[in-house]
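task queued by scheduler; priority normal; single chain, no ligands, no partner chains; default sampling; output format set to structure tokens
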Amino acid sequence: LRFSLPMFPEASGQLTWLIFALSAVAVIYTSLVALVQGDMKKLIAYSSVAHMAIVTIGLFAFNRQGIEGAMIMMLSHGLVSGALFLCVGVIYDRLHTREIARYGGLSINMPRYAMFFLFFTMASIGLPGTSGFVAEFLALMGTYQVSTWIALLCTTSIILGAAYMLYLYRRIAYGEIKSEEVRGMADLDRRELWLLAPIAAVVLWMGVYPESFLAPMRKDVGVLLQRIDRAAPTSDSQPTPGNPAAAPAAAAHHETTPGKAH
């Protein structure tokens, strides 16, 4: 945003195909790797890579929707992934392990923790009403205007993201409590609530009323678009305009010969 696109727009435009290809591979590969992780922190880290791939395709779409979506995604990712890492840290402080298999049934003895963890899990997936939905929708809409196939490939991040995040939540929050150590884990204290609640409020605010976050960046995005407009990639999804059909009255008039006119 600060160097590559405004300073080297044509070079960036020539490498758009490479960025799109690498981003599509990153989305699919890191999501599949996240599915098989046994460490909570590694799983969230791989999901972060997938989200950053959505950022790059949005930026290199060279249109307003893509760039605004990428910027919202960066804001959303910083909040949601940070909150998820905080959630991991909360239970790590109590059990001193990040192995998913050691947990289970936390919704029984830690209901407030399970509620916050579920909210941030849904935000990471892109549930409507959260910041993740606004970011992914705008970035993918901007990408679709440039490349239909890349947009379809990157849309798999929503499906795969739901798969690994909900699988993580099910293994941690549901099921039977596996040990007495887990049974003795205390719910969120006041300090932890004060850490997570403001983040949840901003994530919800960004999802319900994104205009308050989009408006301050709109002028700068417009200036950037003026610089990079000449290097924008050719779209493969815009319909080709044809010749307008003649009006019925005009067509009948042309078909009538002068000798038959009354």
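post-processing summary
- The CA atoms of residues 195 and 241 lie 54 Å apart.
- Residues 64-95 form the longest helix (32 residues).
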